Structure formats: structure tokens, C-alpha cells
Structure to design on (160 residues):
């Protein structure tokens, strides 16, 4: 059995942790930096669902919510995306069902009033999915920084 893999990204947001935290748990703010729709119930056991403009969907549940320091949720392919991976890669081990991986986002205040945002996405089943999620998080976390600072990060990268 191959070991599970991890993607991780760290960024600096010029906003306090409480502001950044809101963009991780409020559906209306979440979709300003990632996704076209979000259903979030940020309590342990609560729903985590994000759908991109092109129909890609991820789903899981919140594991830990510690305002304004940490959010942890499970993550995996949902709906049509999960079915597509099963169809194209039925024996590769690439299937990543909803809730099968874990994302932890920690927020640390820094001396200038901003926030160090560290994301760790664990239990990715293979290098291809690790690499894909690394690129995705490297794309989305800078958008979170822009949104939390009051800017417009532009159109959703996973466009229709």
C-alpha cells in the first residue's frame, strides 16, 4: 500500500485572523474566492459542500472549527465528479470519495496585524491527485488573500 500524500500552501493575508476566518466559514464570503456555490455548516459534523462554476463539486464535513484560529474539514469528489473518476480510473486508486481526505487551515496573527494562513490537505491517494490539489490550492489561497483584504479576486478559475 502506498502512503497517503499531502499538499500544503502558506500565504500571508493583510487582514486579521477573524476577517480571514469569516471567508472560510460563511458561504457568501467563501464563494468570493473559491467556487460558485457553497453550502457550509461550520460546526463539527456540519456540511461542507462547494460547487465550481464548471460543475466540479467537493464535499465532506467540518471536523473542527476554532474561531479565529483553525478550520478542519473532510474533502473529496462529489456528484458527477466522483462518477467520472470511477469511470475513467476504476482500478488506479485515484478515486477520492466525498469526505475521504482532510483539509486543515490554520490562521496565525502576525506582528503587522495580518494573518499567516497555512493549509494542509492530507490523505491524498496518489501523486497525481496530490499535484493537482497542490496547484489548485496555490491558485485559490492567493484569491482568499485578495478577498479578505477587501479586493476582487476576479472570475472563478474553475469557470464554466
Amino acid at each position: 500500500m502506498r502512503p497517503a500524500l499531502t499538499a500544503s500552501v502558506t500565504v500571508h493575508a493583510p487582514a486579521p485572523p477573524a476577517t480571514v476566518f469569516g471567508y472560510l466559514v460563511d458561504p457568501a464570503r467563501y464563494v468570493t474566492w473559491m467556487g460558485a456555490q457553497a453550502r457550509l455548516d461550520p460546526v463539527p459534523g456540519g456540511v461542507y459542500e462547494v460547487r465550481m462554476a464548471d460543475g466540479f463539486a467537493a464535499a465532506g464535513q467540518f471536523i473542527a472549527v476554532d474561531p479565529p484560529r483553525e478550520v478542519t474539514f473532510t474533502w473529496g469528489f462529489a456528484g458527477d465528479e466522483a462518477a467520472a473518476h470511477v469511470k475513467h480510473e476504476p482500478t488506479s486508486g485515484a478515486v477520492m470519495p466525498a469526505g475521504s481526505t482532510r483539509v486543515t487551515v490554520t490562521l496565525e496573527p502576525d506582528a503587522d496585524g495580518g494573518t499567516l494562513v497555512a493549509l494542509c490537505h492530507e490523505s491524498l491517494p496518489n501523486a497525481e491527485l496530490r499535484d493537482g490539489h497542490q496547484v489548485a490550492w496555490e491558485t485559490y489561497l492567493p484569491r482568499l488573500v485578495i478577498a479578505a483584504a477587501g479586493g476582487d479576486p476576479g472570475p472563478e478559475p474553475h469557470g464554466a
Remarks:
- Confidence is low (pLDDT under 50) at residues 81-93.
- The domain at 5-148 is CATH 3.30.530.20 (Alpha-D-Glucose-1,6-Bisphosphate; Chain A, domain 4).
- Helices lie at 17-25, 27-30, 79-88, 127-148.
- Strands lie at 5-13, 37-40, 47-51, 57-66, 70-75, 101-109, 115-124.
